Amino acid sequence: MVQRKGSTRVSEDAEELVRVPLQAILLADSFAQKFRPITLERPKVLLPLVNVPMIDYTLAWLESAGIEEVFVFCCAHSKQVINYLENSHWVSLPHFEVTTIESHNSVSAGDALRLIYERHVIHGDFVLITGDTVSNMSLTQALQEHKDRRKKDNNAVMTMVIKRSKPSLITHQSRLGTDELFMAIDPHTKQLLYYEDKADHLKGTLSLEKMLLADNPSISLHNDKQDCYIDICSPEVLSIFTDNFDYQHLRRHFIKGLLVDDVCFAHFCYFEINSGV
Questions:
Q1: Global confidence as pTM
Q2: What are the residue boundaries of the Nucleotidyl transferase domain, all occurrences included (predicted)?
């Protein structure tokens, strides 16, 4: 349970009561239009990468990382995704269960997570990921850090995976395209203090509140980090989305909204992987 003002913290260790399988929520819909008109007829997760649908790379990584249950949320072109998975080898693997959740009314990641919350299928910490993620990183250390942190701080509801962007030898840019990210973090506690996508600020300038600097003597400012969009979440993340129907986008609304929330004490931490991973 996330602590709010006026409440007392309740410490629980669910693993001591019952073993909960490691779960994942895979969003098969990006709720974006970047790949149109290609995605007008086929979902992005089924687009081929080296002749293999992208969702296969994501599922293969989750299976190799020790995930036992995956809930694939399908919205746009849901029948194509469901038919593909039902006729794939993923449904017959031992110790790796893939279940689809279909919705025709969800228009955002927030809607998807609220619907999953209503289904009561998530029973412990889970990995939140999109179906077009290609990765080979090991989740072991990130999962352990998240669990250890939760035992000490029940309000640390999510651990974001980030990596340092290597600058190009030619352009000296730390990343390509418009994905400009500015973060303020506490290097000692690994807590995320500020998150801003510069795409939201066309003026090219950012302003930090004085209290952010005053309340955090150890603060590190970065514009050389890349958000991997791989999150390790506690079940409270789903309930927070349910309590806040204005939260639609995972970063723009959820992350940035809670960072300035004076009522909910929930906060985010990060796990940084090597640039070569």
A1: 0.84
A2: 24-165
